[in-house]
Design a protein that fits this description.
The chain has about 200 residues and is α/β, with parallel strands linked by helices. Bound molecules: cytidine-5'-monophosphate.
Length: about 200
């Protein structure tokens, strides 16, 4: 049996935390699709043409330890506007979504483009200020952040690129359940996600 859960939303809204918790709760496999774009972005920074990088992505490209940094996040959102890059990554994501035993995919276009027939769809969001603060704390803990203002500017630049691109822009699917985590604890956000999924099972 396969059951596909699509979780979309902007950067640092809590998608990753919710997706990991949901996949553990149901024993489903989890794919953070942002990592695919980050791996392509990292290769672009290394001098590889983004379309070539996307068409030849290898497992070791996803295992790089530097993919979480802010520079690679910006590069990821730049390669993500390229239609051919997105196209090269579709089959892998769809095959993952159909795997027996259930799958959780998180990203920007899972419920709208990659898995329009997903069994459950969530759109996880929060204000840009709350998201920037969370991302700043995460990056600061790893020694990667400069200032909160800079992180906020980065988050807004990435939102702008993700929302306004022509190919697969960031937007909630018509049938997605919206979860605004601005005022929610992690536990409450996870509980809201599981309740929304249960309603579809
Ligand atoms: O989720 P994460 O912040 O790791 O994603 C990095 C970038 O990859 C996003 O800003 C977005 O531009 C792109 N992305 C995308 N579609 C997805 C996942 C990520 O365009 N499904």
């Amino acid at each position: 049996m396969s059951f596909t859960i699509a979780i979309d939303g902007p950067a640092a809204a809590g998608k990753g935390t919710i997706s990991r918790a949901v996949s553990e709760h149901y024993g489903f496999a989890h794919l953070d699709t942002g990592l695919l774009y980050r791996a392509v972005g990292a290769k672009m920074l290394d001098g590889v043409a983004p379309v070539d990088a996307a068409q030849n992505l290898q497992p070791e490209d996803l295992a790089r330890t530097d993919l979480r940094g802010p520079e690679i996040a910006q590069a990821a959102s730049k390669v993500a506007v390229i239609g051919e890059v997105r196209l090269a990554l579709v089959d892998f994501q769809r095959a993952f979504a159909r795997r027996v035993g259930g799958a959780v995919l998180d990203g920007r276009d899972i419920g709208t483009v990659i898995c329009p027939r997903a069994d459950a769809k969530l759109f996880v969001t929060a204000s840009a200020e709350v998201r920037a603060k969370r991302r700043f704390m995460e990056l600061a803990a790893k020694g990667l952040a400069d200032s909160l203002d800079e992180v906020l500017a980065d988050v807004k630049a990435r939102d702008d690129r993700d929302i306004n691109r022509a190919e697969s822009p960031l937007k909630p699917a018509d049938d997605a359940v919206l979860i605004d985590t601005s005022e929610l604890s992690i536990e409450a956000a996870i509980a809201a996600a599981i309740a929304a999924i249960e309603a579809r099972r």
